[in-house]
Write a structure and sequence with these properties.
Blueprint (H helix, E strand, L loop, with lengths): L1 H16 L2 H14 L4 H26 L5 H19 L11 H37 L11 E4 L3 H12 L6 E5 L11 E4 L5 H6 L7 E4 L6 H17 L4 E6 L5 H6 L4 E4 H14 L3 H9 L6 E6 L9 H12 L2 E7 L2 E4 L12 E6 L14
Parallel strand pairs: 1-2, 1-4, 2-3, 4-5, 5-6
Antiparallel strand pairs: 7-10, 8-9, 8-10
Helix pairs in contact: 3-4, 3-5
Length: 371
């Protein structure tokens, strides 16, 4: 019973410590105290204790009886308690009765006020520093299972808007070399270098669900920097899935060597969609509506329930429509997508599906593990 209670208490404490705001406070506290000499605090504590002890000794010598050592020690302990409470602002003013005792009491009160002012000033300074650094993007995200957007461009802006409207909500952190948050409210901003391990850690890359790498401009140099960003992520957080936007199709192989999990060449997608739309009118609008979450057409990749194992494609399509109001687009197996598979294709354990539906409903979104 006691072990179970301790286990529950430990889980609650860990959950409380994982709150992003507390983790940010902890980061700034470490940052501010990292270069402080630990011996300074020890000397300060000893100095404070010495002042209180000397004041207690003076009051005991002035006010207390000195007939025996026992009485003096008893008076000294009581005086020490009085001195501590006086410094804290709650001491008994009637404890001292002589002019010399009054002087010691007044000095302790002033000493206590100075300590309270110093502590208050330190706390206010910490809060001000926290707010300023957070506003400048110099803090740490403190999130878990979030998405880190590395870099900023129009694609990143549209990406954040799309994530904000998805029912499977997740927190987003933008890591970009800028003085202000380019994403606006609702998105945590980290100002820094996307290729820097320290800045990636401030963005919480080691505990992120995925990282999206966006080139800063359409140049080849931006692609090279994106490759360095992918390599930096892989070096410190290989378990995190990386999705990279690529400017030049010729650089795709380099991104693969850097171990990017998914590579999107926006120019190639756009050109192919334009070509198909020129042959089949309305196709561009249809595809855009599907991928951008139009009316009743959210795009999802979901796990298939065990009950669907062994079904044919036609049976699976019918079950998806009947059970979930979803339209089957493709089946994925062992990293390969089967779009319009043959009629003898049957579901196997571990298969997942790409569907279009109004909402997830009871379907479970796919959570892939990093290779």
């Amino acid at each position: 019973m006691a072990g179970r209670i301790r286990g529950r208490l430990g889980r609650r404490i860990r959950a409380f410590a994982a709150v992003p705001l507390l983790r940010r406070f902890a980061y700034h506290a470490r940052r501010l105290t990292g270069d402080v000499d630990r011996g300074f605090f020890l000397r300060l504590a000893l100095g404070l204790a010495a002042v209180v002890f000397v004041a207690a000794l003076l009051v005991a010598a002035i006010e207390g009886p000195r007939a025996s050592i026992g009485e003096f020690v008893s008076t000294l302990s009581a005086s020490f308690y009085w001195a501590v409470t006086t410094v804290m602002g709650s001491g008994d003013a009637s404890y001292v009765q002589t002019p010399a005792g009054y002087v010691v009491s007044w000095l302790l009160v002033l000493f206590g006020a100075a300590i309270v002012a110093s502590i208050t000033g330190a706390l206010v300074g910490f809060v001000i520093d926290f707010l300023i650094k957070e506003g400048q993007g110099m803090g740490a995200a403190g999130y878990r299972d979030h998405i880190v957007v590395c870099g900023w461009n129009p694609t990143a802006r549209e990406l954040i808007q799309e994530l904000g409207h998805d029912e499977y909500t997740t927190r987003v952190v933008v890591l970009h070399a800028s003085e202000k948050n380019p994403a606006g409210q609702g998105v945590y901003f980290v100002s820094g270098d996307t290729t820097s391990a320290e800045d990636l850690r401030r963005a919480g890359i080691e505990e992120a669900m995925a990282a999206v790498v966006c080139p800063a401009d359409p140049s080849n140099e931006a692609d090279m920097r994106s490759i360095l960003t992918v390599m930096a992520i892989e070096s410190i957080a290989p378990q995190v899935r990386t999705v990279a936007e690529v400017n030049n199709p010729a650089h795709v192989e380099h991104f693969r060597r850097a171990r990017a999990d998914e590579i999107v060449v926006t120019s190639r997608i756009a050109s192919r969609l334009l070509a198909r739309s020129s042959l089949y009118p309305g196709l561009a609008e249809l595809v855009t509506d599907i991928v951008s979450g139009g009316d009743g057409s959210e795009l999802y990749r979901v796990n298939l329930p065990d009950a669907y194992v062994g079904l044919s494609v036609d049976d699976l399509s019918a079950r998806m429509r009947a059970d979930h109001g979803a339209t089957l687009l493709a089946v994925s197996r062992d990293g390969h997508a089967y779009v319009n598979p043959p009629t003898d294709f049957r579901m196997q354990p571990g298969d997942d599906a790409v569907v279009v539906a109004v909402s997830l409903g009871t379907l479970a979104p796919l959570r892939l593990q990093h290779d």
